[in-house]
C-alpha cells in the first residue's frame, strides 16, 4: 500500500475521516476493542500532523476528526461511555418535511427496552416497496426477527452484540435469480432500505444498517432465519426505539464533492 506520506489531499482527507469515524463509533459503544484503538488514535494523530505539514486547509472534517481524537483520549482516561442521552424530540412529527427527516435521521446503536408494534414494522416494510427497482422487478424479500421483550437489554448495544440485542432485525434481500445485471440488485436493496430508514425515523424509531453481503454466515441465515440461498442479503436493518441522540457524523460540503462541467474541481474532489 502507498504510504500516506505520498497521499494527495483527497486521499489523506478520506483516510482521516475513516480513522476518526472508527474511533468515534468505538467510544460511543461498549466496543471491547476500544482499548486497542490506541494505535489507531496515534495513527490519526500522525495523519493530522501530516495534513498540517503539507499545508492542506483547515476543512470542517479536519476539526471534526480532531474532536473525535480528543473524545477518544477522554474515554481512555475516564472510561465514560460517550453517548448523548436520548432527547424526546427524536420522535419527529409525521408532518415534518422531507428535508428535516433526511437530515435528522441518524444511525442508532443503543435501544430502549421496548418492543416495536407490528403495525409500525409493517408501515416501514410498506415504505420499502415503494422504492424504484430496475425493470420494476420488485425483487425484495424481507425476513424479520423480533427479540422478545424479556431478552431486550436497555442501552448498550455495541457492534458485536448490537445485532442480536436490537429489538427488530430486518434482513433486506433481493431474489438474485431475477437479475442478469451485476449491480441492480444492490441498488434495488439500497433504495428500499433508504425509504425504510427515513420512514422509521419519521415514526420516532431508530435504525442502523449492518452490512451482510459476503461476510454473512449463509448457513445461519438459512437454518436460523430461514432465508433461502437465492435471496441475497445485502444488509440487515436494526430497528427499535432509540436510547441515544448521536451528533451528526461529518459530511463533506456539497460544493467540495460536486463539479459542474466546465468548472475546475477543488483540490478535495
Ligand atoms: C452499507 C452500510 C453498512 C453499514 N454497516 C454498519 C455496521 O456494520 N455497524 C455500524 O455500527 N454501522 C454501520 N453502518 C452505519 C454507518 O456507519 C453510518 O451510516 C455512518 O456512520 C453515517 O452516520 P449516520 O447514518 O448517522 O448519518 C452502515 C451503513 C451502511 C450504508
Structure description:
The chain folds into two domains: 79 residues, no CATH class; 153 residues, NADH Oxidase, CATH 3.40.109.10. Helix content is 41%, strand content 12%. 29% of the residues are buried. The model has no long low-confidence stretch (mean pLDDT 88). The protein binds flavin mononucleotide. Flavin mononucleotide binds next to helix 1 and strand 3.
Shape: globular
Rg from Cα: 20 Å
Strand order of the largest sheet: 1-2-4-3
Which ligands are bound?
flavin mononucleotide
Q: Give the mean pLDDT.
A: 88
Number of domains: 2
Percent range for β-strand residues:
5-15%
Give structural attributes.
269 residues, alpha+beta, NADH Oxidase, four-stranded antiparallel beta sheet, 9 helices, binds flavin mononucleotide
Strand-helix topology:
Layout: H1 9-28, H2 38-53, H3 60-78, H4 98-104, H5 118-128, E1 140-146, H6 159-165, E2 168-175, H7 184-202, E3 206-211, H8 218-223, E4 231-240, H9 254-257
Antiparallel strand pairs: 1-2, 2-4, 3-4
Helix pairs in contact: 1-2, 1-3, 2-3, 5-7
Bound molecules: flavin mononucleotide.
Summary?
The chain is α+β, with helices and mostly antiparallel strands and 269 residues long. The chain is built from nine helices and four strands.
Amino acid at each position: 500500500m502507498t504510504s500516506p506520506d505520498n497521499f494527495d489531499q483527497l486521499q489523506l482527507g478520506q483516510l482521516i475521516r475513516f480513522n476518526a469515524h472508527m474511533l468515534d463509533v468505538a467510544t460511543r459503544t461498549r466496543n471491547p476493542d476500544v482499548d486497542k484503538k490506541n494505535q489507531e488514535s496515534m495513527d490519526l494523530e500522525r495523519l493530522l500532523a501530516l495534513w498540517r505539514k503539507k499545508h492542506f486547509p483547515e476543512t470542517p472534517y479536519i476539526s471534526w476528526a480532531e474532536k473525535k481524537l480528543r473524545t477518544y483520549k477522554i474515554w481512555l482516561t475516564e472510561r465514560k461511555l460517550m453517548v448523548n442521552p436520548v432527547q424526546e424530540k427524536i420522535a419527529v412529527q409525521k408532518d415534518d418535511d422531507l428535508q428535516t427527516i433526511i437530515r435528522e435521521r441518524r444511525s442508532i446503536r443503543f435501544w430502549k427496552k421496548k418492543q416495536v408494534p407490528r403495525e409500525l414494522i409493517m408501515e416501514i416494510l410498506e415504505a420499502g416497496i415503494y422504492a424504484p427497482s430496475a425493470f420494476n422487478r420488485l425483487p425484495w424479500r424481507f425476513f424479520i426477527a423480533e427479540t422478545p421483550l424479556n431478552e431486550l437489554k436497555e442501552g448498550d448495544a455495541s457492534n458485536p452484540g448490537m445485532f442480536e440485542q436490537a429489538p427488530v432485525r430486518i434482513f433486506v434481500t433481493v431474489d438474485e435469480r431475477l437479475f442478469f445485471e451485476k449491480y441492480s440488485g444492490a441498488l434495488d436493496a439500497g433504495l428500499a432500505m433508504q425509504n425504510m430508514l427515513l420512514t422509521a425515523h419519521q415514526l420516532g424509531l431508530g435504525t442502523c444498517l449492518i452490512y451482510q453481503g459476503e461476510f454473512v454466515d449463509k448457513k445461519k441465515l438459512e437454518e436460523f432465519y430461514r432465508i433461502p440461498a437465492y435471496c441475497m442479503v445485502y444488509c440487515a436493518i436494526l430497528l427499535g426505539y432509540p436510547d441515544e441522540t448521536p451528533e451528526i457524523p461529518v459530511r463533506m460540503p456539497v460544493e467540495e464533492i460536486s463539479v459542474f462541467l466546465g468548472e475546475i474541481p477543488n483540490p478535495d474532489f
